User: What shape does this take?
Amino acid sequence: DARVTQTPRHKVTEMGQEVTMRCQPILGHNTVFWYRQTMMQGLELLAYFRNRAPLDDSGMPKDRFSAEMPDATLATLKIQPSEPRDSAVYFCASADTGSYGYTFGSGTRLTVV
Amino acid sequence: QQQVKQSPQSLIVQKGGISIINCAYENTAFDYFPWYQQFPGKGPALLIAIRPDVSEKKEGRFTISFNKSAKQFSLHIMDSQPGDSATYFCAASTNTNAGKSTFGDGTTLTVKP
Assistant: This one.
């Protein structure tokens, strides 16, 4: 089965450190989403890309978060500097134009201490 | 703005019973309504989806019922099994926003043996 691959699966870091999360979307999918999941906020859309171009990053705190797609096989989400309130599970998902349904990765569980 | 409201927040059902989860939406431009199933430690997985031109869609034990006039849709799980215990999310999206989905807050289903 084709899958979305996220690395790392778990990350524990100290407050103030830079965190980089990576995502390999399904080959051929041209839309990539970054979601954050917490108990309090549920699934929040942070940013998404189509054909590597950012379409919407209004869900991201701009001062510390950044998302990029250096190429069609890699999407990155960076947090600099990280804060304890950033602790959450970050999911990447990909989709093909017109398919609507997403395929999610297994997520990166981030803990900022 | 909460555009997709999901209820109940949690649900306990006996094995063999029917599980029903409800969602209501506000934006009449939504034209795709998927349900996702999430197991602990995993990303959400697309379970079943419906478009507003039909009132019901069935796949195995899972059925979506859709009421366009009431702007509501629901997931029915027939003959619920302990393996169905998971968190279920409804979502809605439109063709005009590159498939970006708005998610409900999720329902944690527990099926007791």
Summary: The two ends of chain B are 38 Å apart (CA to CA). The longest strand of chain B covers residues 86-93. The CA atoms of residues 9 and 51 of chain B lie 24 Å apart. Chain B touches chain A at residues 32, 34, 36, 41-46, 49, 89, 93, 98-101, 103-106 (CB under 8 Å).
